[in-house]
Design goal:
Order of helices and strands of chain A: HHHEEHH
Helix content of chain A: 55-70%
Structural class of chain A: alpha+beta
CATH class of chain A: Mainly Alpha
Number of domains of chain A: 1
Oligomer: heterodimer
Strand content of chain B: 5-15%
Shape of chain A: elongated
Shape of chain B: globular
CATH superfamily of chain A: Winged helix-like DNA-binding domain superfamily/Winged helix DNA-binding domain
Largest interface: A-B, 21 and 22 residues
Distance between the termini of chain A: 29 Å
Largest sheet of chain A: 2 strands, antiparallel
Helix content of chain B: 40-55%
Radius of gyration of chain B: 38 Å
Distance between the termini of chain B: 74 Å
């Protein structure tokens, strides 16, 4: 069972998925870019940072410093990678949804 | 090109570095700068806007810094903690918290109540957009008499066409409640009616809810009712289109075609319905005239030209014609303007402003005093917090938040109380005020914010002055209340004592004035206006007929055993006597002004006027209109008449020195005007005037029967008229209504001021007694009795009040001597007013303080010594 604290929100789930997808390039701004591109979601950079910090506190992702570029004014990126806990929470979230979808015959048949 | 050089705004970066968690700043700024690069294609301004937008979105709880010294708390947690501790202190120090709240609520409430009244007084009639361009015509027959309003253009037969700046004119006949009736469904409704020209709505902005402003008064068969009056007459049925009859000196049928919104309380012009003037050829009431002018109108020049026109009439060669600004009549009262149903009193407005400012000051002193005392008691807590790591800035935030508590609670309570009290305030003090929710809320919040804001500033000063080490030192418990606050308490009490003395003096003066003997017997006198003013020739048929009726009515009255005296003339009420130019014959001096009043031979008996020399008029010896006069003692003194034999006085207009008046008697001085006015020289002239009102003295127990009898007689003589009567005592009493009312208002607010000051003293005492608990214990162990200690403690409070008393007395003395100067008959400033104000404040203060003193004094010394 998923414990109460291990629930993740929709934006959190999206960002977790994107972190997995972006691999070595998963830092704040690139996550925002990917959100716009793949999920048509426009959020502020602050919102992305808020979410990743929250995810890190929950232990779903971890971070390390990446390379600095000139456009960043010589500042480091923070690259995020998913943890084991993160993977399992994503899996659980997916299972719950798939399970629900399958229990609704109308939706399963028409596939919308 | 240029865009590439553009750098992100530095202030934004600095803001983030300051507020965000240090470990995150690098990453955040990196991302932001990269983002800024991405925006290359946009204009500079847009880039900056977008950049700022994102920067501000970084200010969120889990990204910003925490308060220092607290490992896990960020601002939100801190805020929660502060709110929690504030509520705890609030409940722990119930007494002083409640008192702070109470003084704030009371102060804001009273200030707002007074402010509301002043605001509505000052804005009376100001809602008409044209108010500054309206003028009212009036004239006086000679330079020294008083102006009376009248329709000048008709009276002197001129038109306004020759004056390009006069845009419009209007005549208004006013019919008071007892002079006109509106009949609907066979029921009569008395009401106040204005008979007006169709230009009425060009002058006044009364809102029509039904009907068109431009046309509704053009049709002579239309009538316009106010909403309230229409409701009274028609109830729930739709009044529009109903046919009503008007019953007055003119009778006719009208169709209700317009309904007015209720007249605002800030209007001194008041009426129930409007009748088009051209619906009848003649209205009996004398019309008033109003003109509407444009911006270029020159009043002085205009009045000069009008006076010239007036003087071209040989009968009025001495007259003066003038137009008076409508918006100033309310306070000036240049003459009695019948359109007005109330007048303002600038003196009362000024006094109320004074009181409201005093109340605000006392509230301020009281609240600030309470809060700083409370802060003194919690100074150790602050010291501990600082040692743990809180900065003074954070403590300051805590103070602000705790005061906000008071601000919000006080505003809510003050508003609720205001809602509760307002109806009483309005009815008891007969104040007419329209209310607006937003206006009331903002008014109250502004006052509470002002008081709370000041207390925050003072507390902050105190906070930054106290050294942390001192706060933690044991010595702090002995921290004395700062000198400043002792001074403030004294100032607060001085203001209160001044207010108390003022109230005492005002009260005594009004009481003295109202209960002063007029020198007349005014009981059971009824006045009825039987006959209308007749312009006709003395020999005309109309006049002859009226004389016959007059004799008939007079005989009938004299036959009735319940009627004791019948006289015709003016009643001794303010503003009735005419000012005229008189001089003593044989004196070298010029004519000077003196009052005169036409009376008949019965007048002396009617009012029991005492004759001190010579005789009063009598039917057998004197003839109406003869050049004979009875003067009062003031006049005898004024003209230095030692012996009335051969004494003669001349009137400038009536015969001059060639045909003087013979003085036949002197009457004892009596008040024929407002009692505040000095009795001025008065000349009574013998005049049997049919037009004058009948003043009838009736048997004390038969008043109702007599009124019924008079009504019947009136209807017999004037079948078309409407019977009305006035009772002299009521009329006299109504002259002093405003004084009584103002006395009440002063009294109420002074009590509030006393209460507020007492609240301030109470906490002062609370702190002082706490501070000296140990001292009291030691004294008691060493043999001091409870009484000794109690008196020792009391003296420190008494000192502040005594100092306040010493300051207050001379101030009150000067203020009240000045105030009393405006009265001709004044009560002396006696010692008891000052003494009782002082004693009252001491007693109330002692009651507030003694409770605490007693708890300290009665405590077992063992406990007191173990205390702390």
């Amino acid at each position: 069972m998923i414990k109460e604290k291990e629930h993740i929100g929709e934006l959190e789930e999206l960002i977790l998925l994107l972190i997995v997808m972006l691999k070595e390039e998963a830092y704040g701004l690139s996550i925002r870019r990917a959100l716009k591109e793949h999920a048509s979601r426009t959020v502020t950079i602050g919102a992305v940072h808020g979410t990743v910090n929250r995810l890190e506190n929950k232990g779903f992702i971890e971070s390390r410093f990446g390379g600095a570029t000139e456009s960043r004014g010589g500042r480091h990126k923070r690259i995020f990678t998913i943890t084991g806990a993160g993977k399992s929470v994503l899996q659980k979230s997916k299972d719950v949804k798939v399970n629900l979808w399958q229990q609704i015959p109308e939706l399963a048949i028409t596939k919308l | 090109m240029g865009n590439r050089i553009t750098k992100p705004p530095k202030i934004a970066d600095r803001l983030l570095s300051l507020l965000c968690k240090t470990e995150l700043v690098d990453e955040i700024l990196g991302d932001l700068h990269e983002y800024f690069e991405e925006l290359e294609e946009y204009s500079k301004a847009k880039r900056h806007v977008l950049y700022w937008f994102h920067v501000l979105h970084f200010l969120r709880p889990n990204l910003t810094k925490n308060f220092s010294g607290t490992g896990k708390l960020n601002q939100y947690g801190m805020l929660k903690l502060i709110i929690k501790t504030t509520s705890r202190t609030f409940f722990k120090q119930k007494m002083s918290a409640l008192m702070s709240l109470g003084s704030l609520v009371l102060g804001a409430l009273c200030f707002h109540l007074i402010y509301l009244w002043i605001y509505s007084e000052i804005n009376t009639n100001k809602f008409h957009t044209n108010v500054e361009n309206i003028y009212v015509g009036a004239f006086k027959t000679d330079p020294i008499s008083d102006y009376s309003p009248i329709i000048l253009s008709e009276f002197f037969n001129f038109t306004f066409d020759q004056f390009p700046h006069v845009q419009n004119s209007m005549a208004v006949h006013v019919y008071r409640e007892n002079e006109i009736k509106l009949v609907a469904h066979n029921t009569e409704f008395p009401g106040r009616a204005f008979v007006v020209d169709s230009t009425f709505f060009d002058f006044f902005d009364f809102k029509l809810s039904i009907g068109d402003k431009k046309s509704v008064l053009s049709d002579p068969s239309n009538i316009v009712l106010t909403k309230a009056f229409a409701k009274k007459v028609f109830g729930t049925t739709d009044p529009v289109g109903q046919i009503v009859d008007i019953l007055s000196d003119h009778q006719g049928s009208y169709r209700v075609s317009g309904i007015l919104e209720d007249i605002p309380a800030t209007s001194s012009v008041h009426f129930d319905f409007l009748i088009p003037r051209h619906s009848a050829s003649r209205w009996r009431r004398i019309p008033m005239e109003l003109i509407l002018v444009d911006e270029l109108f020159d009043l002085d020049h205009f009045n000069a030209s009008i006076t010239k026109i007036g003087r071209s009439n040989p009968r009025f060669s001495e007259s003066e014609l003038g137009y008076f600004p409508f918006d100033q009549l309310y306070f000036d009262r240049s003459f009695d303007f019948i359109l007005f149903s109330k007048y303002g009193n600038m003196d009362a407005v000024n006094t109320m402003s004074f009181i409201s400012i005093m109340i605000l000051l006392i509230t301020l002193l009281s609240f600030v005093g309470l809060q700083t005392t409370q802060q003194l008691t919690s100074i150790k807590k602050m010291g501990v917090k600082q040692v743990i790591g809180a900065t003074k800035y954070e403590l300051f935030i805590e103070i602000i938040i705790s005061r906000f508590y008071y601000l919000i609670l006080a505003s809510i309570f003050a508003y609720l109380l205001f809602e509760l009290i307002f109806p009483f305030y309005k009815s008891i003090l007969e104040i007419h005020v329209d209310r607006h929710f937003i206006f009331d809320i903002t008014g109250i919040v502004m006052i509470t914010s002002l008081v709370v804001g000041t207390s925050i500033v003072i507390s902050a000063l105190q906070l930054f002055k106290v050294k942390t080490i001192e706060a933690l030192n044991d010595r702090f418990i002995l921290l004395k209340i700062p000198k400043l606050q002792r001074v403030l308490t004294s100032i607060q009490y001085s203001i209160t004592i001044v207010l108390l003395i003022v109230t005492a003096v005002v009260y005594t003066q009004y009481h003295f004035m109202i209960n002063k003997e007029t020198g007349l017997s005014t009981k059971n006198i009824i006045s009825v206006d039987f006959f209308e003013v007749m312009n006709g020739n003395r020999q005309s048929a109309e006049r002859q007929k009226a004389m016959k009726k007059h004799k008939y009515a007079l005989d009938k009255m004299k036959q009735n055993p319940d009627i004791l005296e019948v006289s015709q003339g003016k009643l001794p009420i303010g503003g009735i006597a005419n000012v005229n130019s008189w001089k003593k014959l044989g004196q070298m001096s010029e004519y000077s002004s003196a009052n005169n009043m036409p009376v008949d031979s019965e007048y002396g008996d009617l009012l029991d006027i005492e004759v001190v020399e010579g005789r009063f008029f009598s039917d057998s010896l004197d003839e109406s209109g003869e050049q004979k006069a009875v003067i009062n003692e003031a006049a005898r003194k004024y003209w230095q008449i030692k012996n009335i034999d051969n004494a003669k006085i001349a009137n400038f207009h009536w015969g001059g020195e060639e045909d003087p008046f013979e003085v036949i008697g002197v009457v004892k001085d009596y008040h024929y005007e407002h009692l505040s006015k000095e009795i001025k020289p008065l000349v009574l002239l013998y005049m049997n005037n049919v037009d004058e009102s009948f003043n009838i003295k009736v048997h004390a127990e038969k008043e109702q029967e007599s009124i019924l009898f008079l009504e019947e007689l009136y209807n017999e003589v004037n079948p078309r008229g409407i019977f009305t009567y006035e009772v002299l005592e009521d009329k006299i009493a109504s002259q002093y209504k405003s004084e009584k009312r103002i006395g009440k208002v002063y009294f109420a607010f002074t009590l509030v001021a006393l209460l507020l000051s007492t609240l301030g003293l109470f906490t002062y005492a609370l702190h002082e007694t706490n501070r000296r608990t140990k001292e009291v214990g030691i004294r008691k162990i060493n043999g001091a009795s409870a009484t000794d200690v109690a008196s020792l403690l009391s003296i420190s409070f008494l000192k502040s009040i005594l100092i306040a008393f010493v300051i207050a007395c001379p101030i009150a003395w000067i203020l009240m001597s000045k105030w009393l100067e405006s009265f001709a008959y004044r009560t002396p400033l006696s010692w008891w007013m000052f003494f009782s104000a002082g004693v009252l404040s001491i007693i109330v203060a002692m009651i507030a303080v003694s409770w605490q003193i007693l708890t300290v004094v009665r405590r077992n010394p063992v406990e007191s010594l173990r205390y702390e």
